[in-house]
Automatic annotation (TrEMBL):
GO terms for biological process: peptidoglycan catabolic process. This is Lytic transglycosylase domain-containing protein. It comes from Actinomadura soli. Residues 1-42, 69-96 are annotated as: Disordered. PANTHER family: LYTIC MUREIN TRANSGLYCOSYLASE (PTHR30163:SF8), MEMBRANE-BOUND LYTIC MUREIN TRANSGLYCOSYLASE B (PTHR30163).
Amino acid sequence: MAPPSAPRTGPDARPRRPRPEKKRRRPHGGDARPGPRRRGRGLPVAIAGIAVLAAATASGGAIAALTAEREEPTGSSRPQPPPSVPPGDPVNVATGGEVAPLRRVVPPDVLAVGRGSIPAAKIKKIASLGRVRDVVAVAGGAVQLQGRQVNAFAVDPSAFRSWTPPGTAKDNGLWEALAADRFVVSTAAAEQLGLNRGMRYPVIGRTMPNLTMGGAGPLGLPGIDMLVSGGSGARIGLVPNVAVLVNAPGVSPAKVVKAVTRVLGPGTNVVNLHEYQTPGDGGRPSSYLDLYKQAATACRGLSWTVLAAIGQVESDHGRNAGPSSAGALGPMQFMPATWRAYGVDGDRDGKADIMNPYDAIPGAAKYLCANGAGRGGKQLYKAVFQYNHAHWYVQKVLSLARAYAARFS
């Protein structure tokens, strides 16, 4: 969706008498972040697809690591460009662990896994499909770690962090570790394999480098439990451009699956990521949908669909987090003065961060509740009107809320 362009107006809000400060903007359309997820039959297919194509990097690689004459010399740590980046393009291969700051969240809707490298022309065609907003291609394959086969992606940490759940995306330490050529795993893989941060482990592919475990967190992708840097992926022998993630707001993921399948043809596994429940870190929500639902429980009578509708209109669920021309910030677009009155430390990290969805969404619920949103009816209308003094805005939010209720009922 196009970022908001109209200015916000209004003075600061006070706890007892909240005052509007939301900016006017053109109405946005679009679909919700992930819907209720179900464990379906597609998950084993996605895992099998990436494992089959990477047989040479896993089982064959274990032998190659012991016998191949072209194995990288011991002590060589010169980083190589990620396999998914065409030669000559600038890449972020940070030797000091530096990564670009998180500027937006890009929720993946569809994952496509090929049986080999997906041609650049087909990736470009996917990007040109109607309503497709973002596409990222990554190297991947199955490797052996602690005696278990693990599906891994090789990524650019600065770019890929946006595609992970909000809590993971904002964890700078995780991405700095990845940029420093350490590997990152899902929380579940860390527990099941007994991995400890800072310890070195052999990762068996075409070669067998010893890599340091840099951290763990929810990755948000079914069957993918390991991330390595582009340089490590090239050394291990991961298959370039073997997987594509697609973000297409405002369209049914099932339709995107069909369109991507037509582009890639037979032999490719295309998965609707909305059909899988990705557990959060320590039980925390791992998607905007979950955050809206959890935040609404703090205000009796307030439906999560209202928060979701506001989140869509204000920032397209974190994609356009500001600052606006009037200085509004974050996924729920608060003015700093209003945030000082209504900000919430939702993730209990000791600070209420206007840019953090774990804090901003509960803050929006608190603001609405203080204005009587939980009483519904005319009072809900007035509460949303306080969020942005525009009748079109209220009508847009309530219409989207009804659409969410119908879709997720």
